[in-house]
Amino acid sequence: MTNTLQGKVALVTGASKGIGAAIALKLAEDGAAVAVNYASSKAGADAVVAKIQAAGGKAIAVHGDLAQPADATKLVAETVKALGPIDVLVNNAGVYEFGALDVITPEHFHRQFNINVLGLLLVTQEAARHFNDGGSIVNISSGASTMAMPSTAVYGATKASVDLITGVLAKELAPRKIRVNAVNPGMVVTEGVKTAGFHEGEMRKQLEAITPLGRVGEADEIAAVVAFLASDAASYVTGETLHVTGGLK
Prior knowledge:
Rossmann fold, seven-stranded parallel sheet, alpha/beta
């Protein structure tokens, strides 16, 4: 255990499974007390908390559906009440739905923008009011923000928004010594990817074929980069979008 985040408080949104769960576990391993946010899967969040506690760490599960604006305030308040002022915020909660131009609907648009962009902004706004002196915000974006792949007009647009927001907030929050960076994963095999059927078949083969490292990513590989950006090892890094895509651009 490196304990590079010893004594720090971290809030990870959408942390009941997949990349979010891996991030929560890694931050706890590095010494942070972690608030594990979930929208619907209390069992998943409780399981992540139990794993952290079994390893001697400190964690709580915090409910909050980022599609509901009032929940941003609630989940930050519960985190601060239980663990103290926040040092690290990881905006991981998000949804994705792919669809070609002809099938895009207002519902498809708003569902993704409400969580991926508005939810992220509202949680960040509230958390920034409760940050310790300095700190780190890590936004989970996506390689889709720059790849311009077919059927990702709306999802890719949400993540391009996240990239821009990252740069803007890095400048706005710099006077308070709060760093803001984004991690842009490529395809990672998670529960959500499996549910969507993307973990095997043509889409994965095509992506692996054009990825220089020749494979998809692991959730732990994303978590390791997030932990670096959250730590003082990245003390002079802000406003960056770091693509963790195996070289795929």
